[in-house]
Design brief:
2,3-Dihydroxybiphenyl 1,2-Dioxygenase, domain 1, 3 helices, alpha+beta, 142 residues
Length: 142
């Protein structure tokens, strides 16, 4: 039997942990523990977000660090309404993120847009009318 199907922590490799921490705190994400210069953890519904030096993370994993702004993974925030999507994208831009794509109707029947955090990590903010959001903040997949 393999490991349980779950994502416990998503760790983003960043150029400057305090700068990245300030960005996510400006979005209202709850910092876990005392601020540190080399790592930061945030509590989220159903998972944890960690910020760690891009170079240190690459060294630990034995791989080359991805260049800033490259896309290999998109993280997603699913919300209960289109209005909340618009508000979240505006908050990310106000906190210092970059709007990559304004929210718009999508071919799959939903509404979403994209922003990048100060290190270029892409986030999709979406409302999927086919997925209810549970009390735990996670989408209830069919």
């Amino acid at each position: 039997m393999g490991p349980q199907a779950r994502v416990s922590v998503v760790t983003l490799g960043v150029a400057n942990v305090p700068r990245a921490r300030d960005f996510y705190e400006a979005l209202g994400w709850p910092l876990s523990g005392a601020p540190q210069d080399n790592v930061a953890f945030f509590n989220n519904a159903g998972s944890r977000l960690a910020l760690y030096s891009r170079e240190a993370m690459a060294e630990e994993a034995g791989r080359a660090a991805a260049p800033p702004g490259s896309i290999g993974v998109v993280l997603a925030i699913n919300l209960e309404s289109r209005e909340l999507v618009d508000q979240a994208l505006a908050a990310a831009a106000e906190a210092g993120g970059t709007l990559l794509r304004p929210a718009q109707e999508r071919f799959w029947g939903g509404y979403s847009g994209y922003f990048a955090d100060p290190d270029g990590h892409a986030w999709e903010v979406a409302h999927n009318p086919f997925w209810a959001i549970g009390e735990d903040g996670l989408p209830e997949l069919p």
